[in-house]
Amino acid sequence: MQTPTIQRPQRPTGAFVGASWAALFVGAAAFLAGLWNAQTMQLNEKGYYFIVLMYGLFSAVSLQKTVRDRLEGIRVTGIYYGLCWLSLMLSVLLLAIGLWNATLGSSEKGFYAMAFLLALFAAVAVQKNVRDVALLKPAEDEADAAEAS
């Protein structure tokens, strides 16, 4: 079995970092604005969708970190790795079940689904950028110190 080689990540471009944060903000804000303005939805339904969004964002970031840890040779237990996948799939399933049973129009259901998926994807991209920058920071600090001396 060949040991995986760890490649140093490249610094993400400012445009990609900005687009990732913008997508996260737009997806989550649109989802939450939809909940806030939902006239026919009861407060307990709004709470359900809010918690599903928060759970989905957390599970997406946790899964991205876990996958990245494994790629970099950092030990991750199989049970935690499996729970991350289960959590992400469960959050998507909970949203799908909630929307399937909701008394919303098809366009509203589609709006919530797309805003949710945009926010999940963007959370993964933001986590990747944060991780890449954090890994590059010590090397850049050393290069700056060597340049100064």
Please, could you describe this protein's structure?
The chain has 149 residues and is an all-alpha fold. The chain has a domain at 50-148. It is 81% helix and 0% strand. It is built from four helices and no strands.
The count of DSSP E runs of length 2 or more, i.e. the number of strands, is 0
Low-confidence runs (pLDDT<50, min 5 residues)?
none
Mean pLDDT equals 89
Share of helical residues: over 70%
Give me the secondary-structure category.
mainly alpha
Major sheet: none
Q: Please write the string of helix (H) and strand (E) elements.
A: HHHH
In angstroms, what is the radius of gyration? 19 Å
Residue share in β-strands: under 5%
Q: What is the number of helices? A: 4
Q: Give the oligomer, counting copies of the same chain as homo and different chains as hetero.
A: single chain
Question: Termini distance?
Answer: 44 Å
Overall shape: it is: elongated
Short note summarizing the structure:
By secondary structure, the chain is mainly alpha-helical. It has helices at 14-37, 43-71, 78-101, 106-148. The chain has a domain at 50-148.
Secondary structure elements and pairings:
Blueprint: H1 14-37, H2 43-71, H3 78-101, H4 106-148
Helix pairs in contact: 1-2, 1-4, 2-3, 2-4
Which terms summarize this structure?
mainly alpha, 4 helices
